[in-house]
Amino acid sequence: MDRGPSCANTHAMTQRPVPLPLFAAAALLPAALLCLGVWAGGGWLWAGAAYMAVLVILLDQLIPYVGGPAPEGAEFPAADAVLVAVALAVVALLPLAVWGASSDHLRTGEKLLLVFGTGTFLGQVGHPAAHELIHRPGRRLYRLGVLVYAMLLLGHHASAHRLVHHRAVATAEDPNSARAEESFWHFAPRAWIGGFRAGYLAESALRRRVAGNRGLHPYVWYLAIGLGSLGAAALIGGGRGVLVWLALSAHAQMQQLLGDYVQHYGLTRDRLPDGRYAPVSPRHAWNTPHWFSSALMLNAPRHSDHHAHPARPYPALRLSEDAPLLPWPLPVACGMAMVPRLWRRRMRPHLQRWQAGNAQEPAQ
Hints:
Blueprint lengths: L6 H7 L6 H21 L2 H20 L16 H24 L5 H26 L5 H13 L5 H12 L15 H26 L8 H47 L26 H6 L6 H6 L21 H8 L2 H21 L4
Helix pairs in contact: 2-3, 2-4, 2-5, 3-5, 4-5, 4-6, 4-9, 5-6, 5-9, 6-9, 7-8, 8-9, 9-12
């Protein structure tokens, strides 16, 4: 029951790649439902919240489908357009949700549904879209990803993720790699504060190496956009609006931290005889093969292939034969991670199998 799908079973279920329209529909539909809910309330808000909390998990479990790999070198000319659409939906939905939750337009229960549904969308869809954008070539796409993160008061993630996490993943030098037996509640502040510091140091070092770099430090932009966002919240809803923006940002940030915690929990790279760490391989990230949550989260659960090919567009990410799999959809695993005793008990056999397999691999 807890063993989950093996790589062999996963590939036995594999069909054609997930079509790009499914990514677009899965990621954008909840934003549309929540926007309608701001104006009409009632059933639209229930639909938006239920979509994020229930429907995704049900479809993952009821339809045993795993998206197959795209052909090597396949191009997806519309993939970036989906990312831009999701990012713009975040930019529009945030102030709209603040207005709905801080005004007298909705009843108290509807406001709670709006905050829950919007915060879940921001963390499970907005964050993966921003994550993809900061990896895409071209300054405009990168800056749009930075804007999304900075509006969520998480601008530093654009620096820490690219310059620290990808280089130091699965080592003690990476604040966003969770240690075995470490609880999420211990990991979260360590990762947030450590990521903020490490990203700042990495950006500062990069600026010293690049001749003629006289522009503003990226952290100045992150803080300016964050403060501007809170100022906009104050204009929209006063003090209550600021509290709602903070609550939505905190909800989204917690989901980002939960994703990092789950996807790298307990996985480590060995030290080589020359003192360097072993190269990053597919074995250094947990993956989930579930199709609908993968579509919703823009293939973020195919995390190993992202670390191996950071510039590979999300529709082309693959499930490697060597990638360790979890038996639960990523949103379910993140929910379990919030209960440390449950998480440790359910993860120990998976981590032990990974450690046993890792011990059998020769040093590189």
